[in-house]
Every structure is written in structure tokens, then in C-alpha cells.
Specification:
The chain is an alpha/beta fold and 448 residues long. The protein is built from 11 helices and 20 strands. The strands form 4 sheets. It has a 9-stranded mixed β-sheet with strand order 2-1-9-6-5-4-3-12-13, with helices on both faces. Helix 8 packs across helix 10.
């Protein structure tokens, strides 16, 4: 059961099922209100568009997916040679369009289906699904979307009424056809009203974006502009706007774990003489192994560090100076770690700060001093400033590679790694931004 497609081995089952599709899904039906000018706005990150039946091509010129249940001759013949995936009913693969079998049409899938109670669309999401088809495309399409992992569905062109204009974008309808269609729309609206509470129970957000639709009496309504704005806010804003060179991008990856936990300290040539002071404060209170990140140390100081810990080289990355900090963390080989700036005075046992790296969380300190100098530091005034002098982090945290990549580019020309990170994307923090943090009972708060 599921989707079928012709391959070199004959018709085989395929799967597009997922737990969560990871985007807002706009289901575009061919109601009178569907506007090509409006649907053109849907082509942006964070949105997947699905066109139903004759919504293509006049209502939406280039959807991400198309779904239809009628005979292939009911649609614009160009449809079958469009590159976007098309899902139609199993059993139609031997129909002929333009002198070719439908199974030869570009990116066409055939859905196994059966008559069943409509509520089964909210229950049958498994790999061997048989899609619900009760002679209407609306609930068939909803079933496919739910199976694919759509959890935020926006309904466009779902007027459920043809009193002012035909629902069909094809040939003019007769009075009998128009009356039969209205019966179907009224039935679909009534059935959806009955099922609406079940969508909420299943964690599916079903929202009408069709003005004047009877669906708005029982579904949340949102204008298209509001829906687009909401979808845009869900798209992660990357730290890096400019792509890296492939060599530099390769260097912004986590390296394998060789020790379960420890401390990482970066050493630049102009700070080598601080090493004895840092060690004298750290060593009496701590047993966590130390990884010294070499930002360009002299041979003698490399030897000194090798007698007290492990050394990782960070000289070959494109970033300069302390902009290499993220790369040092990535190369540390530690499972859970604390980054400590070399001028951090350790007054006690720092191992308890590792708790802020639990659950793939990130521990940072809120920088009250930097808060007062946002203009000088070239960061937006609404940004909450964090100090990267003490960082608690777990191996694999996704923020660190992005931070390292942003430090490589430094696209905005800010003064330091702290400003580049703007890990103001972080959710919360407290006092942990300098030497006293290591002895503070509060320490950094977990943030991500």
C-alpha cells in the first residue's frame, strides 16, 4: 500500500511519509478566490505548496506537489510533463496522454486507495497506507498531506461555494454540474466541521486562509499575509549569509570524540605568557583534562602545553585570531566541554558548569558591559549580548558549526567572535561571563 511508481523493475511502492514535513503546507484548491498573483507569494523558504485538481495552472502556476483524482483528460495536458511531483490514483497508469502512457509522465506517482470512513485520514499514516478516497479530492489530498507529515496546513481557494463564480478553472459548467458541485462542497464543509476537533487532538493545525469561506465558522482564520509572516518566522536565520569555500566549509564540522569531557583553552601568540598564570589558577582546583588550542604558539610553549594536556592545531583555518574559537571547540575531541578564555581566572572547580551542556544545551553568560556598547560593536540594538569567555557545550551542538562558519566570513565586520555569534539566538543566560563565573554558585544558564 502507499504510492506506486514505474521503475526498471516494474511498478514498485515508494514512500514520502514522515513524522513531520518541517514546513507550513498550503493546500491550494481551485475555488473562485484562488489567485495566481497571491499564490506566487508562496514560493519562499519554509513553505510547501500543494495544488489540487484544476488549481493548476491558472490558480497556481508552479506548485511543489500536485494532487488529482479525475481522469487525466480533465486537466491541462501540460500538467503531466511538468517537473513537480504529481500524485493521482492507482490504476490510471495505463491511461494515455499525448500518445504516451501516464506512467511515463514526468514525476508521476499513483496512490493506492479505498473507500473508508473519512476520519481514517487522521489515523492511517503508516508505511503501508491505503489512502481514503470517497469520490472527492479534498479529503484524499488531506490524507496524503498528513501522511507526508504536514502538521501545519493552510487552506487556500477553499471557498466551498460557487454561488458567485464557478469552482472550476476549465470549461463553463452547466446548471446541473454547478448544482452537483455545490452539493459536494457543502458535504465537504460539513464533514470537516465534524472532524475539526480531531485535527487539534492529533496535533495538526488546520487553518483557513480563504476569505468568506464557511470553513471560517469553525476553523481558525488567517489572512494570507499573516500566514506568510508566520511561516517566515519559523525559518531559522543562519549565522552565515555568504556561502563558504568548500575547503573552509569542511573545516566547520565536529571532529570525533576522543575524551568524554574536559576544558578547551585557546592560546594566541600574543598571550602565551599568560599560560603559567592560567594554569596556576586552574590546576589546584580541577581534574578535568585540558585541550590547548594552538592559534600559533611558539615551539617552546607548545612543548609546555603538551606536558600538561593535549594540543589541537587551529592555525590552518581561514578565521583570524579569536575568531578561531568555534573551530577550536569543534576540534577539541571532547564529549562535553567548557571553553575558557585564557584570561579567565578559575577560582574553584569548574566541572559543575558542565551541567549546562546537558541535553544538547549551550551554557553562556549574559554580558552586561557589552549591552551598553552595542552601537560600537555593530550589533542590532534589540540583540541580547552574551559573553563567549565561558561556554558549556556538548559535542554535536548545531550552533557551534554555524558560529565557526560565521567567524570565518565575518560578513558584517564586527569586532570579535562574541559579536559574530550573536548567540542572542540563545534563549536565556545569567552571570557566567568572566573569571568569577567559575566560582559563582549560579554559573551560566543553559541556552540554545
Amino acid at each position: 500500500m502507499g504510492l506506486l511508481r514505474m521503475t526498471h523493475s516494474g511498478m514498485v511502492r515508494m514512500s514520502l511519509a514522515s513524522d513531520n514535513i518541517g514546513a507550513d503546507c498550503f493546500l491550494c484548491c481551485p475555488g473562485p478566490s484562488l489567485s495566481a498573483d497571491e499564490t506566487a507569494q508562496l514560493h519562499r523558504p519554509g513553505i510547501i505548496t500543494f495544488a489540487v485538481n484544476t488549481a493548476y495552472p491558472k490558480g497556481i502556476a508552479r506548485p511543489d506537489f500536485w494532487l488529482g483524482v479525475d481522469h487525466p483528460n480533465a486537466y491541462d495536458p501540460r500538467l503531466w510533463w511538468e517537473p513537480f511531483p504529481k500524485i493521482t490514483l492507482a490504476g490510471t497508469h495505463t491511461q494515455v496522454m499525448g500518445g504516451r502512457y501516464l506512467w511515463q509522465a514526468a514525476m508521476t506517482f499513483f496512490a493506492e486507495h479505498g473507500r473508508k470512513p473519512t476520519e481514517r485520514i487522521l489515523e492511517e499514516w503508516g508505511p503501508h497506507v491505503q489512502f481514503c478516497y470517497n469520490a472527492n479530492v479534498f479529503f484524499f489530498a488531506l490524507h496524503v498531506l498528513l501522511w507526508m507529515g504536514a502538521r501545519r496546513i493552510r487552506l487556500l481557494g477553499c471557498d466551498m461555494d460557487n454561488a458567485t463564480a464557478d469552482y472550476c478553472h476549465g470549461s463553463p459548467l452547466t446548471a446541473e454540474q454547478r448544482a452537483n458541485n455545490q452539493k459536494l462542497y457543502s458535504m465537504e464543509a460539513a464533514e470537516l466541521r465534524r472532524l475539526a476537533p480531531r485535527f487539534k487532538e492529533k496535533g495538526v493545525q488546520l487553518v483557513s486562509c480563504t476569505p468568506g469561506s464557511p470553513l471560517n465558522d469553525f476553523l481558525p482564520y488567517m489572512t494570507l499575509a499573516e500566514a506568510l509572516d508566520e511561516a517566515g518566522r519559523r525559518v531559522p536565520q543562519p549565522f552565515v549569509q555568504t556561502p563558504l569555500h568548500c575547503r573552509d566549509a569542511h573545516m566547520t564540522q565536529w571532529q570525533p570524540i576522543v575524551e568524554p569531557e574536559g576544558v578547551v583553552v585557546g592560546v594566541a601568540p600574543d598571550q602565551e605568557d599568560m599560560l603559567p598564570w592560567w594554569w596556576e589558577n586552574y590546576h589546584p582546583h580541577n581534574r578535568l583534562p585540558v585541550v590547548f588550542a594552538d592559534f600559533g604558539m611558539s615551539k617552546s610553549w607548545r612543548q609546555w602545553c603538551s606536558e600538561r594536556g593535549r594540543i589541537v592545531g587551529v592555525q590552518n583555518v581561514a578565521a583570524v585570531g579569536w575568531f578561531r574559537k568555534g573551530h577550536a571547540v569543534l576540534r577539541s575531541g571532547l564529549g562535553r566541554m567548557l571553553w575558557l578564555d585564557l584570561d579567565t581566572e578559575c577560582r574553584g572547580d569548574v566541572s559543575r558548569l558542565l551541567q549546562f551542556a546537558e541535553g544538547n544545551g549551550l551554557g553562556l553568560g549574559f554580558d552586561r558591559i557589552a549591552e551598553k556598547h552595542k552601537a560600537d560593536r555593530k550589533v542590532p540594538p534589540e540583540t541580547r549580548m552574551y559573553d563567549t569567555g565561558v561556554i558549556a557545550v556538548s559535542h554535536g551542538d548545531p550552533i557551534i558549526p554555524e558560529w565557526a562558519a560565521a567567524c570565518t566570513v565575518n560578513e558584517h565586520g564586527v569586532r570579535g567572535d562574541q559579536e559574530v555569534s550573536l548567540i542572542g539566538n540563545a534563549k536565556s543566560a545569567s552571570s557566567a561571563n568572566n573569571c568569577t563565573a567559575c566560582a559563582s554558585p549560579d554559573g551560566p544558564s543553559p541556552t540554545h
